[in-house]
């Protein structure tokens, strides 16, 4: 599938599901880029509570408990029972959060500030 086909599918979906489990050790240290991609689409996202996911994302995604056998299916049914307008607003809020707070300019500024702080800190130690 071409990237533009994937994006069109994400935009036309009712719900995007990232079934990645939280039980593997590496999930404590990783943040799935798929989460950013999905949230940026404006389509609601359902995922498990990954240990590497910052709390600030939690009000913008639907969560399922990957330790409970039927929870993914149950949550999909609950979400799809919601009004279309409610789901559209949920997805729009997630998209706005990403575009306003997690864009490349903001993230670059955070890295620069961190680097400046580290440089000053290392110079003070000398």
How would you summarize this macromolecular structure in one to three sentences?
The protein has 5 helices and 3 strands; from the N terminus they run αβαββααα. The chain has 126 residues and is mainly α. The protein has a 3-stranded parallel β-sheet, sandwiched between helices.
How would you describe this structure to a colleague?
GO terms for molecular function: glycosyltransferase activity. The structure is a single chain. It contains five helices and three strands. α2 (33-41) links the parallel β1 and β2. The protein has helices at 3-12, 33-41, 71-80, 84-101, 104-125; strands at 16-18, 45-48, 62-64. It is globular and about 60 Å long. It has a single domain, classed as 3-Layer(aba) Sandwich (Rossmann fold), CATH 3.40.50.2000. The longest helix has 22 residues, at 104-125. A three-stranded parallel sheet has the order 1-2-3, sandwiched between helices. Helix content is 55%, strand content 8%.
């Amino acid at each position: 599938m071409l990237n533009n086909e994937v994006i069109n599918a994400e935009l036309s979906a009712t719900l995007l599901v990232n079934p990645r489990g939280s039980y593997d050790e590496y999930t404590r240290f990783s943040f799935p880029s798929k989460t950013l991609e999905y949230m940026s689409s404006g389509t609601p996202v359902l995922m498990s509570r990954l240990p590497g996911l910052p709390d600030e994302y939690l009000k913008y995604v639907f969560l399922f408990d990957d330790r409970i056998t039927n929870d993914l299916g149950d949550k999909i049914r609950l979400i799809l029972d919601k009004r279309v307008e409610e789901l559209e607003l949920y997805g729009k809020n997630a998209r706005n959060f990403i575009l306003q707070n997690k864009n490349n300019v903001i993230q670059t500024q955070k890295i620069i500030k961190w680097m400046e702080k580290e440089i000053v800190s290392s110079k003070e130690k000398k």
